[in-house]
Fold these 2 entries.
Entry 1:
Amino acid sequence: MSSDLPSPCPVVVAQNLVKSYAPARRGGTETVVLSGIDMTVGPGEFVAIVGPSGSGKSTLLSCLAGLEPPTGGHVLLLGEDPAKLSRGRLARLRRSGVGFVFQSFNLIPSLSARENVALPARLSGRRVRLADVTAALAAVGLENRGSHRPGELSGGQQQRVAIARVLAARPRVVFADEPTGALDGAAGTAVLGLLTEAARTGSAVVLVTHDLDAAARADRVIVLRDGAVHGELRAPVAADIFAAVHGDPAGALR
Ligand SMILES: Nc1ncnc2c1ncn2[C@@H]1O[C@H](COP(=O)(O)OP(=O)(O)O)[C@@H](O)[C@H]1O
Ligand SMILES: [Mg+2]
C-alpha cells in the first residue's frame, strides 16, 4: 500500500480536550474530569472507550458528540467544531449524521416502535417511507413488533428499537453509552452484534462500556483513567483490556 494515499477524513477528533466543572460553592475546588484527551475515530471504525467508573467515559462521549461544550481544546465532529456552530446548525448536524444509543433506551413511550424509528427522519423534515422503517425493524429482528409501544416490549427489544431508529437514519457515527448496561447477557449480545454490523456497513461506532467482552469486539480500545488516555489497544482480547484497566500484568490472567 502506498503511504502517500490521502488518509480518509476522520469522523471524530479530540485535540487536548479538557472538561472541568466550576466549584459547587465559593472556595471549593474545580473538578477536572477530562485533562487533555487526544483521539481520532476514522470512518467506519469501531472504537470502545473503557475505564473505571468515574474515569470520565460518559463526559468524553458527550463532548465528542457535541452534547457538552469542552472547557479547553477542540472537538471536530464530522469535520465541524460543535462549539462554533449555532444551536440550529448543531442540531441539524446531529440529526443528519449522528446516532445515539443510551443505557436507558430513550424511546418515546406514547409512540409505537414504528413511529419511534421514523421520528428522527420526521423531525428533520424528510419523507419517511414505511418500507424503510419496516426494513430497519426487520434488521433488528422486530418486524412483528412495529405497532407495540415501548411499555409492551422487553428491555432488549426496546434497545433494538432504539438501534433500528439509529440504523434507519444511516448516520456516519453512532455514539453508544453503556447500551447493554440494563440488559441480560443474551439481549446484550444481540445489541452488540447490531453495533458491530453498523460499523461493518459504514457507520463509525464509539462505544462506552465497562463490559470488557463488549469492548473486545471493537477495532480499537481506548483506556481512560482519571480523565486521561491511559492506553490504547488494537483488536485486543478481554484479558488484555482487563490488564490495561486494572493495571494487572496481562500474563497473570492467562
Ligand atoms: N455536572 C457535573 N458537575 C461536576 N462533576 C461532574 C459532573 N458530571 C460529571 N462529573 C464528574 O465527572 C467524573 C466523571 O464522570 P463520568 O464521565 O460520568 O464517568 P464514567 O462515565 O466514566 O463513570 C465523576 O467524578 C463525576 O462526578
Ligand atoms: Mg458513564
Note: The two ends are 35 Å apart (CA to CA).
Entry 2:
Amino acid sequence: MRLTRRTASLALLLGGLAACVSERPATGPEPPPGGGSTVAIQNFAYVPPNLSVASGASVTWTNQDDVSHTVSAEDGTTFDSGALAKGGTFQFTAGAPGTYTYFCRIHPFMKATLTVTP
Ligand SMILES: [Cu+2]
C-alpha cells in the first residue's frame, strides 16, 4: 500500500492592500505679491464661494481646472475676466462697497459673491 503525502501549502495573505489613492491635496493659489485675497476656481466652483474684502483690497482668482472659466460680475460692468485657461489668473481691486454676485459665462451655474466693505 502506497501512501501519498500532500503537503499543505500555506497561503499568506497580506492584508490591507488598500490602494491608497493618494491625491495630492489641492494647493491653493499663491498669495499675490503685496497681499490681498485669493479665490480658487476648482471643480467648477469658486472657493471660497463668498468672500468679503475691504474696499481697496485686491482679489486674485486662479483657475485650477482643466477647462476655461470666467469671473464675471452679474451687473455686467464691475469686472469680467474673460476666459481664463487652466492656471490663468484674474486680479480685481475692490472699489465701491456692496455685494457683487459673479458667475462663469461658460458655466452659468457657477456663482459666488464678493462683498466689498467700506
Ligand atoms: Cu466655468
Note: The chain has a mean pLDDT of 82.
